[in-house]
Specification:
Strand 5, helix 5 and strand 6 form a beta-alpha-beta unit. The protein contains nine helices and eight strands. It has an eight-stranded parallel barrel with strand order 1-2-3-4-5-6-7-8, surrounded by seven helices. It has helices at about 20-30, 50-65, 75-80, 95-105, 115-125, 150-160, 175-180, 190-195, 200-220, and strands at about 10, 35-40, 70-75, 85-90, 110-115, 130, 165-170, 185-190. The longest helix has 21 residues, at about 200-220. The protein is about 40% helix and about 15% strand. The chain starts with 7 loop residues before the first strand and ends with a helix. One of its GO terms (cellular component) is cytoplasm.
């Protein structure tokens, strides 16, 4: 996966849209400049069966219209059925090597990692990028671990400089820069966009913050 595709990585399920139509939220975010979208349909009230398939198909089609990668969280069957661009899994979602074997070499595989050891193991198993965090405190995931800051991203980037990393957890436009300076290719957000009164504007502000941090990092090399 190209690092620039991770610049503004939006994650959302139907339950994350703050009571609004999630398709409209996604469309607004895509207009604002998100560079990747992950469908994470989990939690109380999450869609299942035909309702999930209909929603996921609409999300995929919107992403294709905007030329943005469509990633499915955890659900291998759904990702394969929809011909998704990628799949993202956590450390508890199964054997990463077996998952890579099942989805084949063409589908992007992202893996959540929380330390350098998990990062190395994910890379060896065939991960194309890592999701690392939570960087800051977050309420978007009730089961989230304690905030780790940017140190883990810095360590993983130093050990695996060619592996794209996206930081996640409590990230907003005003605190995205340290994540990029630590070595991340981009930032991943849920509520910073899905709960924003204007998702398009929130996406634009995040994109600008990330781009400015990347340019600053290039200048100081």
């Amino acid at each position: 996966m190209k690092p620039e595709q991770l610049a503004v990585y939006f994650i959302m399920g139907s339950v994350n849209a703050a009571g609004r139509n999630p398709i409209e939220v996604l469309e607004s975010a895509l207009r604002g400049g998100v560079t990747c979208f992950q469908l994470r349909e989990k939690g109380p009230g999450a869609l299942k069966g035909e309702a999930l398939l209909e929603f996921a198909t609409a999300c995929r089609d919107l992403c294709r219209e905007h030329g943005v990668g469509f990633i499915v969280n955890d659900d291998v069957d759904l990702a394969v059925h929809l011909g998704a661009d990628g799949l993202h899994v956590g450390q508890e979602d199964g054997d990463i090597r077996k998952i890579r074997s099942r989805i084949g070499g063409q589908m992007i595989l992202g893996v959540s990692a929380h330390d350098a050891g998990e990062a190395g193991a994910a890379l060896a198993a065939g991960a194309d990028y890592l999701g690392m965090g939570p960087v800051y405190g977050t309420r978007s995931k009730p089961d989230a671990r304690e905030a780790s800051g940017t140190g883990l991203i810095r360590d993983a980037h130093a050990a695996h400089p060619d592996l794209p990393i996206v930081g996640i957890g409590g990230i907003r436009a005003d605190n995205a820069a340290p994540v990029i300076r630590a070595g991340a290719s981009g930032v991943s957000v849920i509520s910073a966009i899905s709960h924003a009164s204007d998702p398009a504007r929130a996406a634009r502000e995040l994109h600008q913050a990330v781009e400015e941090a990347i340019m600053e990092k290039e200048r100081t090399r």
